[in-house]
């Protein structure tokens, strides 16, 4: 087995083994959206606006929930976690895209690629667990309102959050370790806009059946497990809401979980399409476009969904704006 060089090969490192001389890739090229290759300038400004909106929107939600005592409840504690998570997950992928579009910095080191892969998968898994915990919180609030505060005590909901983060960061470890053990000897072009697990596996010059099996099992466990908790919670919520006599009461009760339901659909449906589908291979443009929903658009839209449909958030924002105006107003 020689250098294994093929199309897209740029940089390799020669390693001598007992079987001969091998050349291994030391960097990859991010080659996402090949059909939009000539639109770097408009793409840069589009993704810059998306990234700034994501950071500002989620940062505002995070600060509001932190400062406003009225929002120190289990539901908003999870919303604050989600806002922080969305800021971090966007930062894993979008800045690299901006550098590619603005300065043509499309290369990423071998280690940098796998770090990006780990953190992107870890944040996605954490969001799956966190959204399922939020669904359980809404289930308890609507189906057992008299016992809500005793069930969702501070110690309990903090533990639920810690478990979500711990499981999210622990779940992809085996998958990443197995991928790191694969030989990558060229080509090194990743036909995706970041180092995701499936497109990187396609570049390995060895059998990846074990990696595919582990990755599929991980995806099924996280996605199906989390989504099942959410579906069961909402089935029970709907049953409980339908038992309310007045239509006004049903509307007010269900409105408390509409925003979460919208976020769940925006996040899980494209994610399930990507990782739980009968046809595993679509064009790189389609896969990149679908992945955009849960890695780029959902983090940007989450604060909009929560703020526009949430009276507590809007009231807290007005209160903080008025407080700032009074503080900054010069004295006579």
What is the makeup of the main sheet? 3 strands, mixed
For the record, the CATH class is Mainly Alpha
Spell out the CATH superfamily. Answer: Rhodopsin 7-helix transmembrane proteins
- State the secondary-structure class: mainly alpha
Q: What is the residue-mean pLDDT, rounded to a whole number?
A: 82
CA(first)-CA(last) distance: 83 Å
Strand order of the largest sheet: 4-3-5
Radius of gyration: 23 Å
Shape: globular
Tell me the number of helical segments per DSSP (H or I, 4 or more residues long).
12
Strand residue percentage = 5-15%
Low-pLDDT runs? 1-22
Describe the structure.
- It is a single chain.
- With 332 residues, the protein is mainly alpha-helical.
- It has a single domain, classed as Rhodopsin 7-helix transmembrane proteins (Rhopdopsin 7-helix transmembrane proteins), CATH 1.20.1070.
- It has 12 helices and 5 strands.
- The strands form 2 sheets. Strands 4-3-5 form a 3-stranded mixed β-sheet. A two-stranded antiparallel ribbon has the order 1-2.
- Strand 1 and strand 2 form a beta hairpin.
- Helix 2 packs antiparallel against helix 3, helix 6 runs antiparallel to helix 8 and helix 10 packs antiparallel against helix 11.
- The termini are far apart.
- The N terminus is likely disordered.
